[in-house]
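Progress against Task 2.4 (sequence-to-structure conversion) is shown through the following example record, which the project officer requested during the mid-term review.
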Amino acid sequence: MRAYGKAAITLGELEKSEKMADIRSVIQEVSETGANVVLVVNEMLGTIREGIFIATVLRNEGYEVKWHKQGILVTL
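Structure tokens generated for the chain above:
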């Protein structure tokens, strides 16, 4: 695997990372308010590669994920 700029992260590492735990907790908190969509902003996603991995993890967990110019929309 090639790393550009900083160390590359794998999908498995990201699934267990603190960043993914933070995103899951935000999704949980928002779902408890009754909302049905969460915007995970680009700043929270990190690099494009991490954003793609995060979207993949969330899809694997059963969420509908759509790209938005400010991040990803996660339908609960």
